[in-house]
Amino acid sequence: MWILGSSAGRALLFAAALAALAFAPAWSAQQGHCATGLFTLRADFPGARLGPCRTIGLRELEVRIEPEDEPINPSPWYGFHAHATEPGAGTLSIRLRYGPYEHRYTPKTSADGAVWRALPASAVTVSDEGDAVVRVQPGQGGLFVSAQENIGNDRYEAWLNALAKDHPDARLMEIGRSVEGRPIRALHVNPEAPRHLLLLGRQHPPEVTGALALMSFVERLLAMRRKACTQPGPTCAFFKGHGFMVAPNLNPDGVARGHWRHNVGGVDLNRDWGPFTQPETQAVRDWVDDLEATGQRLALALDFHSTYRNVFYVQDADSPTEPPDFARRWSTRATAAGNPVPFEYAPRPLTDLGTAKNYFHARFGVPSITYELADEEDRAAIAASAAITADALVATLSEERPGSSPL
Ligand SMILES: [Zn+2]
Predict the structure, then answer these.
(1) Alpha carbon of 110 to ligand 1 centroid (Å)
(2) 108 Cα to the center of ligand 1, angstroms
């Protein structure tokens, strides 16, 4: 019998506690790889992210989801490839441990890395502490699991190449290199035009819904451009008078490394428009400065992001734009045209926060809009909405200053 008061009893208790500790699963020192004996997780591809893990059982493990550095905004990105090591392995439960952060992104899965779907709510349990248990059936063929669709640098490369092929008068460019030397690619459509629209994306790597909106928006603009001059009119004049400067992927290092927010320099790029300490923001600044130095003009800037809701951040009444009140007229027109995504219209005062929005407005007086999509907005609605907002943009700019068109 236990005699807890005796020194022998205390020694026995101590030994039992030591034994329990010895059998508690330990966190792996190695990151990016986990194994249960029946399943493996690997983070061995661009866009992957997986912290230390520990195995609880053959069909159960825990992984820590950790940011690239701190302090940081809570956009806890994860991405890994799960495999079963034998047939009929069944369901794997993965606990995502966020530490001081909380589960944010509904897991997306893909067998091939190209076609993704959101896991049903029945396969995800979020605890009161903000951790999540995700249940998947990877099979031996493997299953990608990721915070959002993994839209990587290769996807941008292919997308820009396809656009350039379809629009031989567009200029495919490398406007600079990232901290790690990755190319920052851009497409300049109608580069000789007197006025130009700047479209930026992916300053923040997890903001995939904003990336999807940018792609659909640009595709719509270019499709409109193709047929704009089948008959003369304001739309034809708009496309003759305007070029498009598209830099869809400003943080290729962060995208490749599965960062939550920063570039490899540890900087939030959307706080660097002013300090310009990073090569990624410098590249765009210099691109626009070079344009303006030739006498051509920036007419508008759109910067695509994602957050918890759909929102357009625009200039407030104390920061007039040229053309005047453009953002409100554009947004109202898109809503009237049946925009399937409801956007909050959010005027904000000019600050020295170092955002692209503030920089391009303060420097050039142009409408400068942060175009934010909700993290879990329906993907088909994002594409349909981007087509409508692109149409509304062309219509609104086409009606500007009748009779004083630069052409
Ligand atoms: Zn963002």
Answers:
(1) 24
(2) 20
What is the rounded average pLDDT of the residues 369-384?
98
CB 376 within 8 Å of CB 344: no
Q: How far is the CA of 1 from the centre of ligand 1 (A)?
A: 63
268 CA to middle of ligand 1, Å?
A: 9
Place of tokens 């630069």: 406
Where does the pLDDT of residue 403 fall: very low under 50, low under 70, confident under 90, or very high at 90 and above?
Answer: very low
User: What spacing in Å lies between the alpha carbon of 344 and ligand 1's midpoint?
Assistant: 16
In angstroms, rounded to a whole number, what is the distance separating the alpha carbons of residues 130 and 125? 10
**Is 180 in contact with 237 (CB distance < 8 Å)?**
no
Residue 207: in which H helix or E strand, if any? none
Distance 13 CA to ligand 1 centre (A): 53
The stretches of 258-300 forming alpha helices (DSSP H) are 279-293
Q: Which structural domains are found in the chain, ordered by start? A: 22-146 (2.60.40.3120), 153-398 (3.40.630.10)
The C-alpha atoms of residue 301 and residue 368 are separated, in whole angstroms, by: 5
For residue range 47-58, list pLDDT tens digits in order: 999 999 999 999
Q: Is the pLDDT of residue 24 over 90?
A: no
Q: What is the pTM of this model?
A: 0.93
